[in-house]
Design a protein that fits this description.
Elements (H helix, E strand, L loop, with lengths): L9 E6 L7 H11 L3 E6 L9 H8 L3 E2 L5 H6 L2 H6 L3 E7 L1 H9 L5 H8 L4 E5 L3 H5 L1 H12 L3 E2 L3 E4 L5 E5 L3 H13 L9 E6 L4 E2 L5 E2 L6 H12 L3 E6 L11 E4 L3 H11 L4 E4 L6 E3 L19 E3 L3 H6 L8 E8 L3 H12 L3 E6 L11 E2 L1 E4 L4 E3 L3 E2 H16 L4
Parallel strand pairs: 1-2, 1-4, 2-3, 4-5, 5-6, 9-12, 9-14, 12-13, 14-17, 17-18
Antiparallel strand pairs: 7-8, 10-11, 15-16, 18-20, 19-22, 20-21
The protein binds cytidine-5'-triphosphate.
The site of cytidine-5'-triphosphate (CTP) has 14 residues, from helix 12 and strand 17.
């Protein structure tokens, strides 16, 4: 008989205070059925939804609840508790516990264990749709992702509070599948691959103090670099000036102009994957003024422009160094799919993620994106989702494509 998938794996299950906490009871049972040893930490909020007794009965172990219980500390200190596991699993991951994780707070046993651990952490969010969509929660989720915290869900659906939307916890079998995939190494499907991502705006100098730029925040490109690195790709991020911090586990090359970006991209070759998410300035000054342009009370200066190199088109061109997969973005205000298709033909890239950047879309600088995924034979409308979710979905699709899965 085949061994269950999780034989010998130790999971520290942190049950936080949300309505979905009751599902953690079934989860304990299912994880144990697969061979995992499940030890549970129940937060004060969690204990309002499930009793320590039922958690203990199902896990057949002691339930850890309080940070300052001397007997607990004598038997198993909180540091050891957090390191004795192969995976820390937070179910349900409430907005509150993720905010504490993002801020590095250690106010109870659960958050202390999460801060003290050196093991992988997986969160399974569940909350009201407004709480999930709140900028604070989205920022916290992005922070956790950048730190390598794994996440499953949430999904769209009916909520306990009567509302409908994103925030519903994934079902227990999906959590077990994600935990199994993690232990099988499926969480590193891009290991051994090289990826490069362009991000942010470019600055094109007019004179030593002035420049032409655009409103790109770099959020989408940076999130893609983080997602690819999170799946194990050796990732280089070539970024124009943004307010974003450098990403852990990603080599970042800072550039200003389109021409510098092209040079940095060339230097990052060979690469299996190239994603052009930068909002490259289409034009630059035909000749940049060496000295600051002065008013002199006469006519305004003649700002003659010339076209910048098209980096996406350059990387997509045939040759031995062409990346196996080149992905571009199309910023469109109308006829999104048709224009994106035309862009694939023109630039010879493999995939385009087309997004609606009409003034009321809120894409520039915002945290959400509405994407149409387009390749030679399909166009797929993705639901409106956060830029980190777009990045995760794209990275997963790239991994499936390169590993020969449909
Ligand atoms: N791009 C690039 N280098 C340029 C211009 C654009 O690499 N000099 C890339 C962008 O990173 C993006 C894609 O090309 O992946 C599409 O850019 P977009 O501005 O939408 O299209 P354009 O080519 O400028 O065409 P148009 O303005 O006509 O839509």
């Amino acid at each position: 008989m085949e061994k269950p998938l999780l034989t010998g794996k130790r999971v520290l299950l942190i049950i936080a205070g949300g309505v979905a906490a009751f599902k953690s009871l079934d989860l304990i049972r299912r994880l144990r059925e697969q061979g995992a040893a499940v030890r549970c930490v129940l937060t004060e909020g969690g204990a309002a939804f499930v009793t320590p007794l039922s958690v203990s009965a199902l896990s057949e172990d002691k339930v850890y609840t309080s940070l300052f219980s001397l007997t607990d500390e004598a038997e198993m200190g909180h540091i050891q508790l957090s390191r004795d596991a192969d995976l820390l699993l937070v179910v349900p991951a409430t907005a509150d516990i993720m905010a504490k994780m993002a801020a590095g707070l250690a106010t109870d046993l659960a958050t202390t264990a999460l801060l003290a651990t050196d093991k992988p952490v997986m969160v399974v969010p569940a909350m009201n749709v407004r709480m999930w969509e709140h900028a604070a929660t989205q920022a916290n989720v992005a922070t956790l992702e950048l730190r390598g915290v794994l996440r499953v869900g949430p999904v769209e659906g009916d909520m306990a509070c009567g509302e409908y939307g994103f925030g519903r916890m994934v079902d227990v079998p999906d959590i077990v599948a994600a935990v199994s995939a993690h232990f099988k190494g499926d969480s590193n499907p891009l290991k051994g691959r090289r990826a490069m991502v362009t991000s942010g705006p470019t600055y094109e100098a007019i004179d030593p103090v002035r420049y032409i730029a655009n409103r790109s925040s770099g959020k989408q490109g940076h999130a893609i670099a983080a997602a690819l690195a999170g799946l194990g790709a050796q990732t280089t991020l070539i970024s124009g000036p943004t307010k974003l911090p450098d990403l852990a586990g990603v080599t970042t090359v800072h550039i200003e102009s389109a021409r510098d970006m092209l040079v940095a991209c060339e230097a990052a070759l060979p690469s299996d994957i190239a994603i052009c998410a930068a909002a490259v300035s289409d034009w630059r000054m035909a000749s940049e003024a060496v000295q600051k342009l002065k008013k002199h009370g006469g006519e305004p200066p003649d700002l003659t422009l010339t076209e910048n190199p098209d980096i996406l088109k350059h990387l997509s061109g045939p040759g031995p160094r062409r990346p196996q997969l080149v992905v571009g973005f199309a910023a469109e205000t109308e006829n999104v799919v048709a224009n994106a298709r035309a862009k694939i033909d023109r630039k010879k890239c493999d995939w385009i993620l087309a997004n609606d950047v009409s003034p009321d879309s809120g894409v520039f600088g915002g945290d959400a994106n509405t994407i149409h995924f387009i390749n030679a034979d399909q166009a797929e409308a993705w639901p409106k989702m956060s830029k980190t979710d777009v990045a995760a979905r794209l990275a997963a699709r790239i991994a499936a494509h390169l590993n020969g899965k449909p």
